[in-house]
Design goal:
Number of strands: 8
Largest sheet: 6 strands, mixed
Structural class: alpha/beta
CATH architecture of the largest domain: 3-Layer(aba) Sandwich
Order of helices and strands: EEEHEEEHEHHEHHHH
Radius of gyration: 18 Å
Protein backbone atom coordinates (compact mmCIF):
# COMPACT_ATOMS: atom_id res chain seq x y z
CA UNK A 1 0.00 0.00 0.00
CA UNK A 2 1.31 3.45 -0.87
CA UNK A 3 1.51 6.38 1.54
CA UNK A 4 1.41 9.85 0.01
CA UNK A 5 3.28 12.52 1.96
CA UNK A 6 1.79 16.03 2.37
CA UNK A 7 3.75 17.44 5.27
CA UNK A 8 2.05 19.85 7.66
CA UNK A 9 3.75 22.83 9.29
CA UNK A 10 1.62 22.16 12.37
CA UNK A 11 4.00 20.00 14.35
CA UNK A 12 6.73 20.08 16.97
CA UNK A 13 10.13 18.73 16.03
CA UNK A 14 11.01 15.62 18.01
CA UNK A 15 9.16 14.30 21.06
CA UNK A 16 11.14 15.78 23.97
CA UNK A 17 12.73 12.40 24.64
CA UNK A 18 9.49 10.39 24.69
CA UNK A 19 8.88 7.52 22.32
CA UNK A 20 5.39 6.83 20.92
CA UNK A 21 3.55 3.72 22.07
CA UNK A 22 -0.14 4.67 21.76
CA UNK A 23 -2.05 4.98 18.48
CA UNK A 24 -5.02 7.36 18.70
CA UNK A 25 -7.88 7.11 16.20
CA UNK A 26 -9.93 10.17 15.21
CA UNK A 27 -12.86 11.05 12.99
CA UNK A 28 -11.98 14.00 10.77
CA UNK A 29 -15.42 15.66 10.82
CA UNK A 30 -14.82 16.69 7.23
CA UNK A 31 -13.95 15.46 3.76
CA UNK A 32 -10.58 13.96 2.96
CA UNK A 33 -9.42 16.88 0.81
CA UNK A 34 -10.89 19.43 3.19
CA UNK A 35 -9.13 17.83 6.15
CA UNK A 36 -5.79 17.87 4.37
CA UNK A 37 -6.24 21.54 3.45
CA UNK A 38 -7.07 22.38 7.06
CA UNK A 39 -4.09 20.50 8.44
CA UNK A 40 -1.75 22.16 5.94
CA UNK A 41 -3.05 25.58 7.05
CA UNK A 42 -0.94 27.14 9.80
CA UNK A 43 -4.04 28.86 11.16
CA UNK A 44 -5.60 25.55 12.16
CA UNK A 45 -2.83 24.58 14.63
CA UNK A 46 -4.01 20.97 14.19
CA UNK A 47 -2.46 17.90 12.59
CA UNK A 48 -2.58 14.11 12.42
CA UNK A 49 0.31 11.85 11.54
CA UNK A 50 -1.89 10.03 9.01
CA UNK A 51 -5.27 10.58 7.32
CA UNK A 52 -7.26 7.69 5.83
CA UNK A 53 -9.85 8.46 3.14
CA UNK A 54 -13.12 6.56 2.81
CA UNK A 55 -11.72 4.87 -0.30
CA UNK A 56 -8.73 3.61 1.72
CA UNK A 57 -6.15 6.10 0.45
CA UNK A 58 -3.68 7.19 3.13
CA UNK A 59 -1.72 10.42 3.45
CA UNK A 60 1.01 11.15 5.98
CA UNK A 61 1.21 14.74 7.21
CA UNK A 62 3.65 14.49 10.15
CA UNK A 63 6.64 12.21 10.54
CA UNK A 64 6.37 9.66 13.34
CA UNK A 65 9.53 11.03 14.94
CA UNK A 66 7.82 14.41 15.30
CA UNK A 67 4.89 15.52 17.47
CA UNK A 68 1.51 16.06 15.81
CA UNK A 69 -1.05 18.38 17.40
CA UNK A 70 -4.12 16.21 17.84
CA UNK A 71 -4.26 14.82 21.40
CA UNK A 72 -3.18 17.68 23.61
CA UNK A 73 -3.67 17.19 27.34
CA UNK A 74 -2.95 19.42 30.31
CA UNK A 75 -2.36 19.11 34.07
CA UNK A 76 -4.06 22.33 35.09
CA UNK A 77 -7.55 21.06 35.92
CA UNK A 78 -9.31 22.17 32.73
CA UNK A 79 -11.45 19.90 30.57
CA UNK A 80 -8.38 18.52 28.77
CA UNK A 81 -6.66 17.53 32.01
CA UNK A 82 -5.23 14.02 31.77
CA UNK A 83 -6.81 13.11 35.13
CA UNK A 84 -10.13 12.58 33.32
CA UNK A 85 -8.76 9.96 30.92
CA UNK A 86 -9.74 6.33 31.59
CA UNK A 87 -6.31 5.28 30.23
CA UNK A 88 -3.59 4.79 32.81
CA UNK A 89 -1.01 5.58 30.15
CA UNK A 90 -2.49 9.08 29.93
CA UNK A 91 -3.32 9.67 33.60
CA UNK A 92 -0.01 8.47 35.02
CA UNK A 93 2.47 10.10 32.66
CA UNK A 94 1.73 13.69 33.50
CA UNK A 95 2.85 15.14 30.16
CA UNK A 96 1.10 16.27 26.99
CA UNK A 97 -0.27 13.13 25.33
CA UNK A 98 0.87 14.41 21.93
CA UNK A 99 4.42 13.49 22.94
CA UNK A 100 3.85 9.73 23.06
CA UNK A 101 0.98 9.19 20.61
CA UNK A 102 0.61 8.64 16.87
CA UNK A 103 -2.65 9.99 15.45
CA UNK A 104 -4.72 8.59 12.59
CA UNK A 105 -7.63 10.65 11.27
CA UNK A 106 -10.31 8.64 9.46
CA UNK A 107 -12.43 10.58 6.98
CA UNK A 108 -16.01 10.86 8.19
CA UNK A 109 -18.61 12.86 10.07
CA UNK A 110 -19.99 11.58 13.36
CA UNK A 111 -23.53 12.69 12.53
CA UNK A 112 -23.47 10.51 9.41
CA UNK A 113 -21.36 7.48 10.33
CA UNK A 114 -21.21 7.39 14.15
CA UNK A 115 -17.57 6.47 13.59
CA UNK A 116 -18.09 3.39 11.45
CA UNK A 117 -15.49 2.72 8.76
CA UNK A 118 -15.85 1.70 5.15
CA UNK A 119 -14.41 -1.72 4.21
CA UNK A 120 -11.58 0.13 2.46
CA UNK A 121 -10.77 2.15 5.57
CA UNK A 122 -10.79 -0.97 7.71
CA UNK A 123 -8.43 -2.72 5.33
CA UNK A 124 -6.07 0.26 5.40
CA UNK A 125 -6.19 0.39 9.21
CA UNK A 126 -5.16 -3.27 9.43
CA UNK A 127 -2.15 -2.53 7.23
CA UNK A 128 -1.29 0.92 8.63
CA UNK A 129 -1.25 0.18 12.36
CA UNK A 130 1.41 -2.58 12.15
CA UNK A 131 3.32 -0.37 9.71
CA UNK A 132 3.36 2.41 12.32
CA UNK A 133 4.55 0.03 15.00
CA UNK A 134 7.34 -1.26 12.78
CA UNK A 135 8.41 2.29 11.95
CA UNK A 136 8.54 3.11 15.66
CA UNK A 137 10.66 0.02 16.23
CA UNK A 138 12.96 1.06 13.38
CA UNK A 139 13.34 4.61 14.64
CA UNK A 140 14.00 3.60 18.23
CA UNK A 141 15.54 0.17 17.68
CA UNK A 142 18.33 0.69 20.20
CA UNK A 143 15.83 0.48 23.06
CA UNK A 144 13.21 -1.78 21.46
CA UNK A 145 9.67 -0.39 21.62
CA UNK A 146 7.32 -2.96 20.15
CA UNK A 147 4.07 -2.63 22.06
CA UNK A 148 0.94 -4.83 22.12
CA UNK A 149 -1.67 -4.24 19.46
CA UNK A 150 -4.50 -4.14 21.98
CA UNK A 151 -7.13 -1.75 23.31
CA UNK A 152 -4.67 -0.20 25.74
CA UNK A 153 -2.48 0.91 22.85
CA UNK A 154 -5.04 1.41 20.05
CA UNK A 155 -7.44 3.96 21.45
CA UNK A 156 -9.86 6.73 20.53
CA UNK A 157 -9.54 10.45 21.07
CA UNK A 158 -12.50 10.20 23.44
CA UNK A 159 -10.35 8.08 25.73
CA UNK A 160 -7.59 10.69 25.85
CA UNK A 161 -9.76 13.78 26.44
CA UNK A 162 -13.28 12.47 27.14
CA UNK A 163 -14.67 15.84 28.24
CA UNK A 164 -13.77 17.72 25.06
CA UNK A 165 -13.97 14.94 22.43
CA UNK A 166 -16.68 12.48 23.62
CA UNK A 167 -17.68 11.53 20.04
CA UNK A 168 -14.25 11.07 18.47
CA UNK A 169 -13.98 8.78 16.60
CA UNK A 170 -17.52 7.61 17.43
CA UNK A 171 -19.63 4.90 19.02
CA UNK A 172 -19.46 2.65 15.97
CA UNK A 173 -15.70 2.78 15.50
CA UNK A 174 -14.61 -0.90 15.17
CA UNK A 175 -11.85 -1.05 17.79
CA UNK A 176 -12.52 -4.68 18.73
CA UNK A 177 -12.70 -5.79 15.10
CA UNK A 178 -9.41 -4.05 14.34
CA UNK A 179 -7.63 -5.73 17.26
CA UNK A 180 -9.07 -9.13 16.32
CA UNK A 181 -8.10 -8.74 12.67
CA UNK A 182 -4.60 -7.59 13.61
CA UNK A 183 -4.00 -10.75 15.59
CA UNK A 184 -5.49 -12.94 12.89
CA UNK A 185 -3.47 -11.39 10.07
CA UNK A 186 -0.06 -13.01 9.46
CA UNK A 187 2.56 -10.29 9.39
CA UNK A 188 6.11 -9.68 10.52
CA UNK A 189 4.69 -6.67 12.31
CA UNK A 190 2.81 -8.95 14.72
CA UNK A 191 5.88 -10.35 16.47
CA UNK A 192 5.75 -10.97 20.23
CA UNK A 193 6.12 -7.83 22.27
CA UNK A 194 9.60 -6.78 23.25
CA UNK A 195 10.29 -5.46 26.75
CA UNK A 196 8.90 -1.95 26.96
CA UNK A 197 10.13 1.09 28.82
CA UNK A 198 8.70 2.16 32.18
CA UNK A 199 5.98 4.76 31.84
CA UNK A 200 8.21 7.74 32.48
CA UNK A 201 11.40 6.41 30.88
CA UNK A 202 12.74 8.41 27.99
CA UNK A 203 14.99 7.75 25.04
CA UNK A 204 18.45 9.19 25.65
CA UNK A 205 19.76 11.62 23.07
CA UNK A 206 22.58 9.31 22.05
CA UNK A 207 20.13 6.56 21.04
CA UNK A 208 18.42 8.55 18.28
CA UNK A 209 19.99 6.49 15.51
CA UNK A 210 18.18 4.52 12.84
CA UNK A 211 20.61 1.69 12.38
CA UNK A 212 23.97 0.32 13.35
CA UNK A 213 27.11 2.21 12.45
CA UNK A 214 29.43 4.75 13.96
CA UNK A 215 28.11 7.51 16.19
CA UNK A 216 28.63 11.17 15.28
CA UNK A 217 31.55 12.96 16.86
CA UNK A 218 30.69 14.93 19.97
CA UNK A 219 31.25 18.25 18.22
CA UNK A 220 28.78 17.28 15.48
CA UNK A 221 26.15 15.51 17.60
CA UNK A 222 23.70 18.42 17.88
CA UNK A 223 23.84 19.13 14.13
CA UNK A 224 23.48 15.44 13.26
CA UNK A 225 20.42 15.00 15.46
CA UNK A 226 18.92 18.19 14.00
CA UNK A 227 19.36 16.79 10.50
CA UNK A 228 17.80 13.49 11.52
CA UNK A 229 14.81 15.05 13.30
CA UNK A 230 14.17 17.30 10.26
CA UNK A 231 14.37 14.39 7.80
CA UNK A 232 17.46 15.70 6.03
CA UNK A 233 19.30 12.42 6.65
CA UNK A 234 18.25 8.90 7.61
CA UNK A 235 20.60 8.92 10.60
CA UNK A 236 23.04 6.27 9.40
CA UNK A 237 26.83 6.27 8.96
CA UNK A 238 27.56 9.76 10.30
CA UNK A 239 31.34 9.51 9.78
CA UNK A 240 31.28 7.99 6.28
CA UNK A 241 32.07 9.96 3.12
CA UNK A 242 28.87 10.78 1.18
CA UNK A 243 28.39 10.17 -2.52
CA UNK A 244 27.37 13.05 -4.74
CA UNK A 245 23.88 11.65 -5.04
CA UNK A 246 23.58 11.50 -1.24
CA UNK A 247 24.68 15.13 -1.01
CA UNK A 248 22.07 16.10 -3.59
CA UNK A 249 19.38 14.18 -1.68
CA UNK A 250 20.24 16.05 1.53
CA UNK A 251 20.11 19.38 -0.32
CA UNK A 252 16.82 18.36 -1.92
CA UNK A 253 15.35 17.46 1.50
CA UNK A 254 16.45 20.83 2.86
CA UNK A 255 14.95 22.61 -0.15
CA UNK A 256 11.58 20.99 0.54
CA UNK A 257 11.70 21.94 4.19
CA UNK A 258 12.35 25.65 3.58
CA UNK A 259 10.13 25.99 0.52
CA UNK A 260 7.00 24.65 2.24
CA UNK A 261 4.18 25.23 1.40
CA UNK A 262 5.27 26.08 -2.14
CA UNK A 263 6.81 22.63 -2.51
CA UNK A 264 4.63 19.72 -1.41
CA UNK A 265 5.67 16.10 -1.77
CA UNK A 266 3.00 13.90 -3.27
Amino acid sequence: MQITRRMSPNRSIGRQGWRPDVIVCHITEGSFDGTISWILNTKSQVSYHFIVARNGKVVQTVDISNTAWANGTTRNGDNRDSQYSPLHTVRDRGVNANLYTVSIGFEGRFAQTQGSLTPEQLKTAIWLIPHIREEIHRLYSVRGVLFPLDRNHIVGHHEVTPRTRPNCPGLEFPFDAIVQLLYNTPSEALEPEEPSLPLNDTVPTDTVQLSSGSHPSEWAREAWEWGFQNNLTDGTNPQEMPTREQVMQILFNYHKSIMYPLFVES
